[in-house]
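Exercise 7.
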Amino acid sequence: LLLKGCKTPVCLAIPSANPGFNARLDGFRFEYFARAGKKSSTMLELPLPEGETLEACQDLLLEQTLEKKKILNKLLKSDGIFSPEDRLTAFLHRVLQKAGVKKFPEIISCNRNPAYLAGLYPRPASIDLGAATGAELGIDELFRRISGGDSRADDVAVIAAPQLIPGEG
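Solution. The predicted structure, written as tokens, is:
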């Protein structure tokens, strides 16, 4: 978002059953703050009914939450949006289109699920949390051990290598 010149980004916060969900938001906000100097991003709470989570939320309710006037106005005033989940990003995109937005804010999504982002234009960038990279490294290590080669010196059990997959537009 900084490379695109965003000065008023928002982070979409929504109740989630995923214990790592808040870490995505905290990680983004920390990196933005660390790289942007004194600038910071704004947290935009998306209210769901008591006990409801993103994962169990019905599509219509998720869309209606994003369409609330107060929420939509804050989204339209921002020049950049961090969405911590691609499913949420797809609904965000739909709501912005329905609102007649001609120039979308820069959007960065998270969790890189191409099925949710397929057909979106401009397709937002998405942070790949490294599942594919970890799988590739695991397979390499397995083949190395099967062939009798030396195992990795660091013997890392879990590898996290988030990568930004650029969008279009």
